[in-house]
Amino acid sequence: MIPDISERKHIVLQCDGNSFAVASALYTYMLMQHKKVSLVGEVEKKFAFLPWYDALRANTPASADEFIDTREIDAHALFLYFEQEGIKVNAKMATALYCAYFVKYKHFTSPTCDGMVFAAVSQIINYGAAYKSVQNALLKQEPLKLFRLRAYLFKEMCLTENARVASVYFDESMLEKSGAVQEDLYTLLEEFLSIAHVQEVHLLKRDEKNKTVTIIKDENIEK
User: Fold this and answer.
1) Beta bridge partners of 37
2) Distance separating alpha carbons of residues 41 and 181, to the nearest angstrom
C-alpha cells in the first residue's frame, strides 16, 4: 500500500482533484512520522476546504527521493491499511478520508457502495471527520456555470431504447455561453444516470454545421 519511507528524506505525493483527499490523509500521516513531504498536482478550488490545500505546489522539488502517485491508491484500501497497522487516524486524516469515500462512491449513491463501506465511513466519522463540511463543500457550492450548462444539455437530451439510453448533445457554443469547460460535461454525465430508467449516457459533440456527431465519452450504471 505505502512503500517503506523510513530511510527517505523527502517524499512527494502526486495527486489530482479525485485523489487529493487521499493525498491529504497521507500528508498528515507522513508529517506525524516527522518526514519532509510535498504535495504536487493541480486540484480544483472546490477541494480547498480540505487540510493542506494551501501546501499544493506545481513543481516537483529537486531534493525528492520518493514519489507516491496517490491516484493509484484506493481510499477504502488506505483506511483498512491504517486500521490494520494500528495507525492513529486524527481529525484531519478522518476528514480527508471521508471526502475520499464521498468522491469515490459518488456521494454514497454508487452501486458499489456496500455495508463494508458504510461501516468504514461510520468509524471515520467517529474519528472526528468534519463530514458536514465535506457535504456542504461538494454539494451546496455548485458554480453558476454548471446550472447553465445543465439546462442546455437537458434541452438537447434524447432518450432511446425505452428510456434506457440517454444521448446528450453539445457544441462549443454551449460551453462559451455557460462559461463551462469540457471537464464540467463529464461531471454532469454521472448525474444524468440518476434519471429514471437510464442505464447508459452518451456524450456527443456536434460540429459547426450541426450535422456530424462524435461520441466524446460514455458512462454506464455499472461504473
Assistant:
1) 11
2) 19
